[in-house]
Design brief:
- This protein starts with a helix and ends in a 6-residue tail after the last helix.
- The chain has 22 helices and nine strands.
- By secondary structure, the protein is of the alpha+beta class.
- Helix content is about 50%, strand content about 10%.
- A hairpin with a 5-residue loop joins strand 6 and strand 7.
- Helix 12 packs across helix 16 (about 260-280).
Length: about 500
């Protein structure tokens, strides 16, 4: 559902004028010979009345017709008009969150001055940090996934239906896993694809893409031949997802060059979810999770073995954890992916889901250093030398005492030499986790005190050997607190009557 700026502004003006005139909804509706419910729809920006109705409304409100229908706003509200007209607001997926655009913008019609100030602030923040529309849309997608605990039963069912539909024809029920060659054959035979694995690697400007699609009567899928077979397998499964689910609006490249809508991002996520469910079937995966959680002690071998069992990358595996565990084990978790360039002190959080509501510093204006004690960070230097370091850690936040069991992998990036990636899944340590994961009490699991960023951490240099920056923000806050205390003391010693 799009946002109709003219209708929104008209509704706002009507409400303002009605309140200025001291009229209730019922009063104005009666004078204009319309229902109070219809007038409510007008004021909320959902309906735009006929010209004859507007004439009656203008007379009842003591306004000129032209002033009421004009989209020009007072100077104090100019940012309101600009923001409502922005692509970000107009494309925001209100309906995916159970809202209509006018519902989300109710503040506008209730208190235009404050709404204008708020939206002005948003505009300024956007400009200052050079935020792109796609960043808002990606944040909306993450929120959508987190609200649903990243579990979508319709996609799980679709993956199972696909296997049943094509099982006999392609021998899917004869194999423990869907082979790469079978996925390729399905794309060729059922959906008319041609597949090329030479063009991308041969073109320097395209070498960072995993895959490219040229749509048409006979779609052409280009795959980077430098990828591992397990990565290609997922690309094919995801591509089948687009076709089987009938997803039209989509990205045509593995690394999205342009985000045109929330629907595009949502369809990309749905196709990827389908692909993961296809190559890591729900029933079998849940059984393997139960076996893994039942281990009496932490053992990295069964954990790593799941990569081979399903022929997937660490990110595919742990992301599948994030899809099934909250729903079927009742555990809250978070998923983090970091990147690190060898020889630098730069650690970037590039992907996350946060059903734990874990305080993970990220987003606009972050120029701080993530705590180097996090498992996500610790795995990255090792990934440059070790093809697949595996880690486990119970992390305890210094100030809150909250504990998380973290499991993860590190690995070098295939298409980006010198860059390593780490992925971890983290579970909040509570009574439910103790019930679900038997090896949680293994004394050999490292216990580590962590914080958010070095700039906020109170640990002294002798207490933390990996500090990457001084505690500048912590010290600034302490100075502010000291000033407040001194000011309060000064006020307390004022002579009576001063």
């Amino acid at each position: 559902m799009g946002l109709d700026l003219i209708t929104i502004i008209f509704g706002m003006k009507v409400r303002q004028a009605r309140l200025e005139a001291g009229l209730t909804l019922t009063d104005l509706a009666r004078q204009c010979e319309m229902s109070a419910s219809y007038l409510t729809e007008i004021e909320k920006g959902r309906k735009y009345p006929r010209a004859d109705k507007i004439v009656k409304m203008a007379a009842a409100l003591g306004k000129r017709y032209d002033d009421l229908v004009s989209i020009k706003l007072d100077p104090s509200l100019r940012y309101l008009e600009t923001t409502l007209a922005s692509a970000t607001v107009r494309r925001f997926p209100f309906e995916e969150f159970g809202l209509e655009p006018a519902d989300a913008l109710g503040l506008v019609t209730r208190d235009p001055d404050r709404a204008s100030a708020l939206l002005h602030a948003i505009v300024e923040i956007t400009r200052r940090y050079d935020l792109k529309e796609e960043e808002f849309l990606r944040a909306a997608l993450r929120s959508y996934q987190e609200i649903h605990e990243n579990y979508f039963p319709d996609l799980e069912d679709a993956a199972e239906s696909f296997t049943q539909e094509f099982g006999a024809r392609y021998g899917l029920d004869e194999e423990p896993l869907v082979p790469l060659a079978t996925l390729e054959a399905i794309l060729l035979n059922e959906y008319g694809y041609t597949i090329d694995d030479t063009a991308i690697a041969a073109t320097e400007e395209l070498r960072h893409y995993r895959a490219l699609l040229l749509p048409g009567r006979r779609p052409q899928l280009f795959i980077n031949n430098r990828l591992y077979a397990r990565q290609v397998r997922f690309i094919l499964a995801r591509e089948i997802g687009y076709r089987y689910l009938g997803l039209k609006e989509r990205s045509l490249t593995s690394t999205t060059d342009e985000v045109t809508s929330f629907q595009q991002l949502l369809n990309d996520a749905r196709a990827a979810y389908f692909g993961g469910a296809l190559i890591m079937p729900r029933g079998r995966f849940l059984a393997d999770l139960e076996d893994f959680f039942a281990l009496p002690a932490w053992d990295p071998e069964p954990f790593s073995a799941m990569l081979t069992t399903y022929d997937v990358t660490p990110e595919m595996l742990l992301y599948r954890f994030s899809e099934l565990i909250p729903q079927f084990f009742g555990l809250k978790l978070h998923f983090l992916r970091f990147h690190h360039t060898t020889g630098t002190d730069d650690y970037q959080l590039v992907r996350h889901l946060n059903m734990n509501q874990l305080l993970v510093p990220s987003g606009i204006g972050l120029f701080e250093h993530h705590c180097r004690r996090w498992l996500s960070i610790r795995l990255l230097p090792d990934a440059a030398a070790n093809p697949l370091p595996v880690g486990v850690q119970i992390s305890e936040f210094l100030e809150t005492g909250e504990k998380f069991l973290c499991l993860g992998f590190g690995r070098p990036m295939v298409l980006t030499p010198g860059v390593s990636s780490s992925v971890i899944i983290g579970f909040r340590v509570d009574a439910e986790l103790h019930k679900a994961i038997r090896f949680l009490d293994d004394p050999d699991i490292p216990r580590t005190i962590i914080h958010e960023t070095c700039e906020r951490c109170p640990l002294r240099p002798d207490q933390c050997a990996v500090r990457a920056a001084p505690p500048a923000i912590l010290l600034a806050r302490r100075e502010q607190t000291a000033r407040k205390i001194a000011l309060n003391q000064l006020k307390a010693h004022r002579a009576p009557g001063d």
